[in-house]
Amino acid sequence: MKKNLSAVAFLMAASINIFAQTSAKDSLRVVNLQEVQIVSTRATSKTPVAYSNISQKEIQKQNFGLDLPFLLTATPSVLTTSDAGSGVGYTSIRVRGTDATRINITANGIPMNDAESHSIFWVNTPDLASSLEDMQIQRGAGTSTNGAGAFGASINLRTAGIPSKAYAEVSGSYGSFNTHKETVRVGSGLLGNHWAFDARISNIQSDGYRDRATSDLKSYFLQGGYYGENTTLKLIAFGGKEKTYHAWDGISREQLETDRTYNPNGAIKDDNLNKGNIIGFYDDQTDNYEQTNYQLIFNHLFSPEWHLNIALHYTDGFGYYQEYKNGRTLEEYGLKPFYLPENTEAQTKTNLVRQKLVDSGFGGGVFSVDYKDEKLSASLGGGLNHYSNDHYGKVIWVKNYTEPLNPDHEYYRNNGSKTDGNIYAKANYQITKGLHAYADLQYRYISYKIEGDNDKWDWTADPGHLQRLNVNEDFSFFNPKAGLFWQFNPNHSAYASFAVAQKEPTRNNYTDGLFDELPRPEKMLDYELGYTFRNSRFTAGVNLYYMDYTDQLVLNGKVNDIGEAMAENVKDSYRMGIELSLGARITDWLRWDLNGTWSKNRIKNYTGYMSDYNQNWKELYTQTAIYAGDTPISFSPSFMGNSLISFNYKGFDASLQSQYVSRQYLDNFGIDENSLDPYFVNHLSLAYSFKLPSVKQITVGATIYNLFNTRYETNGYSQNAAVYEGGDKNQKAVISYDPRFYPMAGTNVLAHITVRF
Known about the structure:
Layout: H1 2-13, E1 50-55, H2 56-60, E2 78-82, E3 91-95, E4 103-107, E5 110-111, E6 132-139, E7 153-159, E8 167-175, E9 179-187, E10 195-206, E11 215-227, E12 231-245, H3 253-258, E13 267-269, E14 278-281, E15 286-301, E16 306-329, E17 349-372, E18 376-398, E19 410-432, E20 435-458, E21 465-489, E22 492-503, H4 507-511, E23 522-534, E24 538-559, E25 565-587, E26 590-614, E27 619-632, E28 639-649, E29 652-661, E30 664-665, E31 675-676, E32 679-692, E33 695-705, E34 713-718, E35 721-724, E36 734-736, E37 739-743, E38 748-756
Parallel strand pairs: 4-7, 26-35
Antiparallel strand pairs: 1-6, 2-3, 4-5, 6-7, 8-9, 8-38, 9-10, 10-11, 11-12, 12-15, 13-14, 15-16, 16-17, 17-18, 18-19, 19-20, 20-21, 21-22, 22-23, 23-24, 24-25, 25-26, 26-27, 26-28, 28-29, 29-32, 30-31, 32-33, 33-38, 34-37, 35-36
C-alpha cells in the first residue's frame, strides 16, 4: 500500500502530462515484436469512459477503398459524409452530432488534427487503415491528452507492429464509378534477433458518384525498428499525395430529383456580363496536396512496473487548390482594369483562374513515464508542438486580359503559427476488489498568431482593401477528469465520470466572420454514466451522457468558399442522450450486434443571423438578427441506430450492416425546409478465404453498398438570407431559404482480392 501511495504522489505532484500504452503483453520479447508504443491514452476495461475498439481483423474486413471514417460507421453515435458521394476523396465524420474539428485524432499518441482547422483531412493520408494495428473511438471528452481538445470524441490510431516472420501481401479491389485500389505490403520479419522492417504502397482512384468528382490518391507507409530486451526504437514515415476534383458545393432540392449527380464546381459561364449560361466545366478545378509524417518512437522498460516512452514527430505538407472564377472584380486580386479592342469602357470584372496555396510544417514531441502494478496504473507525461503555415494566393490566368500578368502574381499572403504545450498526470487505482478510481489532471497552453492579408475583400471599407489579419491569442486551460469503475462480478460492471474540456477557436472561426468580434474559446462539462453486462454469449451496455457547453461553436449552416462549414459561438447549449448496445452470439457462426443513440441537442435562447441582400441579390454586408428561442443544434439527429449481422463458417464471411438516421437540421433554426431527410441504408459484404500451396491465404469477396438503392443525403448547408426591398432595412425582411445537399450514391459494388504469402 505504501509503495502504491508513493507512486501516486510522485506522478501527480510532477504535474506533467504524459501517456503511454503498453502492448498486450507485459514484456518486450523480440520474438513477438509486441512493443510498447506511445499512443493516445487508451481506455481499458476498467476506465470510466464510453468507447469502442476496432481490431485489425475488423478493419481488414471493410478496407477495400473507402476512406477511414467509413470503417467506423457501425460504432455508436457515428455519422459519415462524402463530398463525392462514394466514400472516396473528401470525407468527414461526426460523433454525437459534433463535427470533425471537435474530434481529437492521434496516431501512436501523436496529434494528427491540423493545428489551425482542428480537422483532419483523411484524403491526405489515404489507405492509412491498411497499416493499422487497431483503432479506438472514445465518445465524449474521453481520455484524450495530446492535441486538439475532444468535444465529441477521440479516435486513437495505433500503427501495426512488424510480424516476427517475413511476409508479403498483395490486395486489390475494383467496382462502381471506376473505383479501384491496389496495395502491396512486405515485411522482413526479425533480422539478427533485433531488427525488422515493414513497407506498404497504395494507389486509390475513383471517378466518384457525382460528375467529375474524381480522386487520385497515392500513399506509402515505411517503418523500421530496433528491438532489444528492454528497449525499442522505431522510425515511421507515412504520407500521401492526392488530387481530387472539387465536389465542395451542394445541389438544390429540385436537382436531387432531376439530376442527383450534378456537380456545380468548375462551371464556366459564357461571360461575366451575361450572367448566363454555363458553357462548360474547367478541367483543372482540382485540390492538390502532398503530406509526409515522420515519427521516431523510443521505449525503455526500467522494470516490470516502470517504463518510459518518448516520441518525436514532424509533418511536412504543401498543396494548393485551383479553381475557375466567373465575373470577379479585378481590384480584389491586385489587378488593373483593362480595355478590350474597340471598347472605351474599362473592364473591371472578368473570369479568371486562381490558386490558393498552403505550405505547412508541424513538429514536436510527446512523452510519458508509466507505472503499473496489481492495483495502480499511472502516467506522467506531456507534449510540446509547434505549427507554422503560410497561406497565399496566385492568379495564373485572366480572360481577355490585355495588361501584363506575372505568372506568379500573388494577391494575398498571411501566416498562421501555433505553439501548443501540455502536461498531465493520471492514475487508475483499485480501492477495493472490483472498485477503481480514475483521476486525470491536464494543463494545456496555446499561443496562436495570424498575421497578414486575408483572402477576402472588405467592401465596407473606403477605399476597399483585403481584410487585415492580426490575431494574437493566448489560451490557458485546466482540464480535470475523474471517475469510478465498479466490477460487481464477472458479468456486471458500471462506471460514472466527470470531465472538463476546453478548446480554442479554429482558424476559420477567426477568418470567415464579419470581424465585428473575435470568437471565444469553448468549455464543456461532460457527465457520463454507464452499465455493461457481459457473458460468453451476450453483451449489453447503456451509457447516459450530458454535455453542458459554454460558448459552444456550433455550425450555422453556412460554408466558406472551399465548402468548409462555418460556426458561431452560442452562450448556453447542451447535448444529452442515451447510447444502448446489444450483442448476441446466436451460434458459433452467427452474431448480431445492435446499437442506438437517442439524444436531445439544444441551444438555449438562440439568436441567429442572416446576411442581408436587396431584391436584386446585392449583398448589403450587414446581418439581421432573428431570435428563435430554444432550438435543435444543427447536424444532430435525435436518433441513430446500427445493426450488424455477421456470419462466419469454414472460411466464408458475410455481413449485413444497416444504419438509420433521423432528421438533421442544416442550421440552428429547426426548420424542416432546411434539413436532411431521415434515411435507412444497408450494405452487404461477402468474402471467402482459402489456402493454396506456398500461399498463406487468399481472400476474395465483394461489398454491395446501399443494397436497396436508397436515395439519401448525409450532408448539406443552407444559404439563408434576409431580403430587403430597395435595400431599406427599415422595412420588414423577407426570409429566403436555399438549402443545398450532397447526394450519396445508389447501389454500388466493390469486388476485392487479397493474397498473403
